[in-house]
């Protein structure tokens, strides 16, 4: 008999030895896994569940040792890989972490190698190439077992992650639909109420004419008219906010001069400040060419300035605009600062204050080079966070408009020290965003 045939015969005898000692190998394997302090999932499995597809893996390994030609070896090797992949999949389903499965393969490798060494000591007459062939086959077996198990884990993790992403996307779409529905409901309710307010307003005008000769009735009628006017303005804000939350607003990007727009708007509001004996100061470059939605920028400025005037009794309001280049980002800023009372810590605006403070702190970290780019900062007002009167609605409108324009809204305030709102706008938008 030639030497290759002698080697094949010796390998076949070795395979039969491994098959005869299969139960002992599996018991030793399970025992060492149970003694491994880093492996805990196996304690909940029965013996058959623990062994899983490993007997089929060992069958294929033994057939590979006994193979008479390369084709038989390759078939046995493919069976090893297939059984190892199924073993990895079942370990996933049994709640194993990937690291636990890999450590189990290491324990299996040890005990099969132990059986090989025991056989080699008992048969010293074996040709020198028999045991190296068996060891190389074992290394390949366990290496492929680890790879196939890891590949199974990866496929299952990707599938599970994709399922979770689809579920999250569906939940997000439902939330967005609910938010749009809520905004539309608000808008419709405010619109209906505004019609009723118009009726009350007309009635109050009639009462005012009839009460012209009675100072008491006239004063009461005028108070009613002022209240109706405030209510009409509040309902207008609710309609605007409802439209924004329903996603009915779109940004219309175009180039415009922000300096000219803000200067003109402040001049229009100066009379209102004069009525309250307040100053309204402006500062900034004479020209500031930017890209954006001029109408919505004006709405943001108007809400912030009117809010500042309404809460200030002494002093006044400063409006400032300027350009900024931060870490290569082309931006421009609008600042509205008042000398009012500032947000009180116990006021209903505290949630809004807290969130805007966080955005401001992040912006300051960015300016110091320790935070994310300022263009990524966003303020997120908690659901239902408003301040007294219509102030919270106006600020909520500002927040929504800022989100629509990819702008960040920041707040600096302290009781008795006034409030500063700063809005950071992109100076340009990506070409794909242009209409």
Order of helices and strands: HHHHHHHHEHEEHEEHHEE
Supply the number of helical segments.
Answer: 12
- The dominant shape is elongated
Percent strand? 5-15%
Structural class: alpha+beta
Question: How far is the first residue's CA from the last residue's CA?
Answer: 85 Å
Taking all Cα atoms into account, the compactness measure Rg is: 38 Å
Flag low-confidence runs.
346-351, 366-391
Instruction: Report the major sheet.
Output: 5 strands, mixed
How many strand segments?
7
When the domains are counted, the total is: 2
Strand arrangement within the widest β-sheet reads: 2-4-5-7-6
State the helicity in percent bands.
55-70%
Mean pLDDT reading: 76
What do you see in this structure?
The chain has 435 residues and is of the alpha+beta class. It has twelve helices and seven strands. The protein folds into two domains: 1-248, no CATH class; 251-433, 2-Layer Sandwich (Heat Shock Protein 90). Helix 4 (54-66) runs antiparallel to helix 7. A hairpin with a 5-residue loop joins strand 6 and strand 7. The strands form two sheets. It has a five-stranded mixed beta sheet with strand order 2-4-5-7-6.
Write the layout of secondary structure elements.
Elements: H1 3-20, H2 22-35, H3 47-51, H4 54-66, H5 70-93, H6 98-122, H7 130-210, H8 215-245, E1 254-257, H9 258-275, E2 279-283, E3 289-292, H10 294-311, E4 316-326, E5 329-338, H11 350-367, H12 391-404, E6 408-413, E7 419-426
Parallel strand pairs: 2-4
Antiparallel strand pairs: 1-3, 4-5, 5-7, 6-7
């Amino acid at each position: 008999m030639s030497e290759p045939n002698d080697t094949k015969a010796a390998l076949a005898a070795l395979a039969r030895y491994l098959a005869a000692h299969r139960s002992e190998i599996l018991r030793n394997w399970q025992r060492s896994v149970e003694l491994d302090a880093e492996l805990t999932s196996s304690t909940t499995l029965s013996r058959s569940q623990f062994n899983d597809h490993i007997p089929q893996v060992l069958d294929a390994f033994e057939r590979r040792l006994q193979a008479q030609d390369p084709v038989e070896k390759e078939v046995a090797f493919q069976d090893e890989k297939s059984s190892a992949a199924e073993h990895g999949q079942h370990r996933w389903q049994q709640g194993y972490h990937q690291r636990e499965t890999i450590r189990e393969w290491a324990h299996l490798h040890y005990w099969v190698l132990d059986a090989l060494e025991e056989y080699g000591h008992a048969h010293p007459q074996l040709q020198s190439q028999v045991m190296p062939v068996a060891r190389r086959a074992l290394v390949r077996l366990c290496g492929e077992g680890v790879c196939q198990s890891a590949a199974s884990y990866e496929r299952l993790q990707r599938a599970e992650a994709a399922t979770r992403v689809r579920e999250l996307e569906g939940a997000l779409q439902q939330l967005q639909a609910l938010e749009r529905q809520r905004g539309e409901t608000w808008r419709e309710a405010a619109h209906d109420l505004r019609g009723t307010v118009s009726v009350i307003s007309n009635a109050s005008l009639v009462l005012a004419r009839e009460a012209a000769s009675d100072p008491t009735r006239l004063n009461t009628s005028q108070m009613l008219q002022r209240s109706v006017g405030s209510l009409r303005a509040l309902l207008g804000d609710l309609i605007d906010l409802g439209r924004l939350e329903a996603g009915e607003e779109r940004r219309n990007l175009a180039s415009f001069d922000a300096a000219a727009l803000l200067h003109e708007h402040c001049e229009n509001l100066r009379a209102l400040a004069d009525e309250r004996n307040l100053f309204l100061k402006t500062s900034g470059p004479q020209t500031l060419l930017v890209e954006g939605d001029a109408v919505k920028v004006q709405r943001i400025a108007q809400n912030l300035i009117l809010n500042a005037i309404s809460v200030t009794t002494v002093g006044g309001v400063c409006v400032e605009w300027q350009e900024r280049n931060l870490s290569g980002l082309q931006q421009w800023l609008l600042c509205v600062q008042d000398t009012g009372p500032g947000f009180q810590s116990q006021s209903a605006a505290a949630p809004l204050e807290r969130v805007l403070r966080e955005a401001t702190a992040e912006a300051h970290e960015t300016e110091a080079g320790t935070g994310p780019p300022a263009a990524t900062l966003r303020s997120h007002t908690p659901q239902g966070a408003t301040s007294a009167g219509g102030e919270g609605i106006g600020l909520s409108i500002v927040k929504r408009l800022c989100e629509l324009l990819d702008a960040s809204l920041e707040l600096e305030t302290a009781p008795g020290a006034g409030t500063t709102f700063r809005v950071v706008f992109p100076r340009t938008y990506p070409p794909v965003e242009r209409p």
